Amino acid sequence: MKGHCLCGAVTFIAPDVPQMAACHCTMCRRWGGGPMLTVQCPPDMQIEGRAHIRAYRSSEWAERAFCATCGSHLYYRVLPDGEYAVPAGLFQDGPEFRFHEQIFIDQKPASYEFANETAKLTGAEVFAKFTPPSP
């Protein structure tokens, strides 16, 4: 699937991803003004126009990037594994995504609610999912 920022300076080519998720964490809501709807893309996703990308290290383990030309949000990237969470709206001509999961549901404000049936994970459940078990 192909996607790009608002001005087209940064483009993505990624394998078709059938599903999207929503993040309700306080950082995502502050960054975008609401929940972040994303598709997971692999570390080897093709990105063109890297000269237009500006990244901000938002935590010890992740960075958030935007287009320096138009300001579009480009991705949230987990640094240890390189996975990208790319805003679903950047892929306008791709597959129709199935809304499958909401994360940081314990940080979601009461002011909105999605009608879709999805898995709902708290912040603790998200961190447990991605933390390897102790030997």
What can you tell me about this protein's structure?
This protein has 135 residues and is mainly beta. The chain has a single domain (2-130), classed as Metal Binding Protein, Guanine Nucleotide Exchange Factor, Chain A (Beta Complex), CATH 2.170.150. It is built from two helices and eleven strands, in the order βββαββββββββα. The chain has helices at residues 26-32, 123-130, and strands spanning 2-4, 11-13, 19-23, 36-41, 46-48, 53-57, 62-67, 73-78, 84-87, 98-103, 119-121. The protein has an eight-stranded mixed sheet. A three-stranded antiparallel sheet has the order 1-2-5, with no helix packed on it. Strand 7 and strand 8 form a beta hairpin. The protein is globular and about 35 Å long. It starts with a strand and ends in a 5-residue tail after the last helix. The model has no long low-confidence stretch (mean pLDDT 93).
